[in-house]
Design goal:
Shape: flat
Number of strands: 9
Strand order of the largest sheet: 2-3-4-5-7
Length: 508
């Protein structure tokens, strides 16, 4: 992961010109930057080191990896360092044509593809003598095309999740150049599958550690969901007992189902004991057969729940299951990138939000879920992006007001105070002219309190930001909303209203 070759190019104009043509690695284009402002989804610096004649850009990331971004919205890692990237760019002048090749294609196919591309290049200009000269001057090894394609393939596979490029203004992700990585569930389940093997082997340390770690326990139960070995009953009983400590959870229900599918009536006392752990488990596991039920009744209960809630193919599970488990295991970038791509897809195809039972109606539940997920990841820019779309799609006045109020909160927390003020102005407009009767009771319920509270909090933020005039305007609007609240609702906001007024007097 060195940059020895890059230093030589920067020191020797002849070599730099040779790299620019015919190998289209032009250091001079670095001065122009990329075609748009970009940033990494994972954060971290990007240094532009070169460009090509199609508008593509070569960046160096914090760890030395070289990220290439084209002008059409695609990006991918092409080397673990500048030297390796230059090996590929010089050794494979048609490397853009090989991003879908892999070592599994075999040397014969790879060599045929490279030969065809390079013959096309040679019809216009030479590359062979130039390649030999540049390799020798930069000290690059003479690797075979098949080996270079293998290195390119391995580099591209490292792009996600740590090197995904975003449009800095819009927040949407660049498409991945090259091969798709494994489905999300594979890395998420990997640790659970390994723990399941240890439990089956009778590793007593694993029996203790997995059972006492809520995240490892959940992931192991999910691994068991898709690998239903006959000999797992004792393992499942053990995990079921310990999962009850987390109260009601999807994994507790899963553990109960996996035990019940065995149809062993001797497990009924355990299942009923787990059901009575607390109020939530009593409700969530309320369908468990009562004492004295037959094996067939137990198996029937488990099978019905299994068919309606669980399955045997991880690809059929909802995306949020895997992103939640990824986040909980510390795979933050993996969860973030997956959610960003999901948000991108929803922007491009909003028909996916159509309500199954009413095709003419949009359901914004998935959008609200994305907002929540991004907030939990601490990614306010993406939460804002999702909430803006969520607010734009609302149909009833109540939902529009609620969504705009949430948008104002996120904008305030992100420091976008003028935009937050605009969102609250839209809230007040909707309250004044709702267009339907969904807001008839807003003054008496929590929504009214939340609207007033957000007005006061934004007024405080404006005052703290040294914008007293804007703060006073918003305070007046807040007081107007506060004045419309029912007495009980107003009482909940009273202390915050007084605190805001006092703060504005201080900066007055």
């Amino acid at each position: 992961m060195t940059d020895h070759a890059l230093r030589l190019l920067r020191q020797d104009r002849r070599l730099a010109e040779l790299a620019a043509f015919p190998f289209d690695f032009d250091l001079d284009r670095a001065d122009h930057g990329h075609v748009e402002e970009v940033r990494l989804a994972s954060g971290g610096p990007l240094e532009v080191i070169a460009g090509d004649d199609t508008g593509g850009t070569y960046f160096v990331c914090a760890d030395g990896s070289v990220l290439y971004a084209d002008s059409e919205g695609g990006a991918g890692i092409i080397g673990s360092g500048v030297d390796e990237a230059l090996e590929i760019v010089i050794g494979l002048p048609g490397w853009h044509d090989y991003t879908r090749l892999s070592p599994e294609d075999g040397e014969e196919k790879i060599l045929a593809c490279v030969a065809e591309t390079e013959e096309g290049i040679r019809e216009h200009y030479g590359i062979d003598e130039e390649r030999a000269e540049l390799r020798a001057a930069l000290g690059l090894p003479n690797r075979s095309p098949a080996e270079l394609v293998g290195r390119l393939h391995a580099a591209l596979l490292r792009t996600e999740p740590d090197f995904v490029l975003l449009n800095a203004e819009e927040g949407c992700a660049y498409d991945a150049i090259g091969p798709a990585g494994p489905p999300l569930w594979e890395p998420v389940l990997a640790a659970g599958r390994a723990d399941l093997v240890r439990l089956r082997q009778g590793d007593r340390t694993a029996w203790r550690d997995v059972a006492e770690d809520p995240v490892r326990r959940r992931v192991t139960l999910r691994a068991a969901q898709f690998d239903r070995a006959e000999g797992d009953l004792e393992v499942l009983r053990h995990l079921l007992r310990h999962e009850a400590r987390s109260s009601m959870s999807d994994e507790l229900r899963l553990a109960a189902v996996l035990v019940g599918l065995r149809g062993n009536a001797e497990d009924l006392p355990l299942l009923l004991e787990v059901r009575e752990t607390d109020f939530d488990t009593a409700c969530g596991l309320g369908g468990i057969p009562e004492p004295g039920a037959s094996s067939d009744e137990l198996r029937r209960w488990a099978r019905e729940l299994d068919e309606s809630l669980f399955g045997t193919d991880p690809a059929d599970e909802p995306l949020w299951l895997w992103t939640d488990l990824a986040r909980d295991q510390g795979m933050t970038n993996l969860a973030r990138v997956t959610l960003i791509r999901e948000l991108d897809d929803l922007f491009l195809d909003q028909s996916r939000l159509r309500h199954p039972g009413a095709p003419g109606t949009l359901t914004t539940g998935p959008m609200s879920g994305l907002v929540r997920d991004f907030e939990e990841l601490g990614d306010l820019p993406q939460a804002l992006r999702a909430q803006r779309l969520c607010a734009a799609l609302q149909e009833s006045a109540w939902d529009r007001v609620s969504a705009r109020k949430t948008l104002a909160r996120l904008e305030r927390e992100a420091g976008h105070l003028p935009q937050a003020a605009d969102s609250l102005a839209a809230v007040r407009d909707a309250l004044a002219t709702p267009g339907d009767d969904s807001l008839r009771s807003w003054r008496q319920v929590n929504l009214g309190c939340f609207i007033a509270e957000e007005h006061y909090r934004l007024a405080l933020a404006l005052a703290d930001a040294g914008l007293p005039d804007q703060a006073r305007v918003l305070l007046a609007a807040a007081d107007a909303v506060y004045g419309e609240l029912a007495e009980n609702a107003a009482q909940r906001v009273h202390e915050l209203a007084e605190q805001t007024a006092a703060r504005l007097r201080e900066v007055g």
